[in-house]
Model the fold of this input.
Amino acid sequence: MPFLPPEALADAESIAVSAERAIALAKSGDTRAALNLALQARRRAQGLDMDLGEIEALNAAAMVHLIRGDTIAAVASALDACELARRADDRSRYGHALVSLKMAAWNLGACEEVTDTLDRCAREAMTLGDFALEVRARVGLGVVLGDQGRFDAAEREYKRAFPLALGRSTPTGAPRILANMANLHRKRAAAHFSAGLEARALHDSEEAARLAGQACRMALEEGNLSVEIDALAIRACALDMRGYGERARALLRASIGLGKASRCPSAIVWVVCELGRQSLAAGDL
Done:
């Protein structure tokens, strides 16, 4: 996607639209163009001395970096957005920046406890009537709680976020929430298998495969390539748990193919690792 001429980013509204477009481009798989657009919008906002526009662009850049898997870069953008939003006393934009910052820090293993912050962001979003922020905060909570093995609490957050995302244009859409719910069932199935609870494990792995398939179909309809990549791989993990190894590896290869086509290798690192693990388990050195 070519750079926009300066006159196309002449006011706060056009900069905000460009920030939204950058996130949509990243979800569709064109993460390079998405990042270029977000950074161009930021530079234009700086040139026009528009603090709110710069915050919008920085928040978009942080989300694009997270989609790309560029976690450290996401921290940098989110920190700048936090500082500007704090100065402007803009609670909504500050909340979005804080969610990005906390999720990036969690991904880096640099922040042990983020649930209180994300819960405060969700409650603040409810006060502000900011559905997009509430969805992002609750989905972030679901990810962290799931990683901590608090599966029921994580599921509650996803179930609260999902209806808010349906029918609305939010950075974290319904397909992503479904994919995360599928991954939560995969995590719970793994825990059940480890505990020797095979019947429960098989139930959760079946639910993981079902939800991942649903997420993949919805992502395909919406053109959300980043979710499609993850959903295919999550379904593969669930099928592998159920003994369908050959089918699982085929899905992993399909996911990797989508990632390569989008020219964003960082997004499929975990998928490639999973394919390696499953191949080793199958004796395919």
Q: What stands out?
A: The radius of gyration is 19 Å. The chain has two domains: 1-91, 173-285.
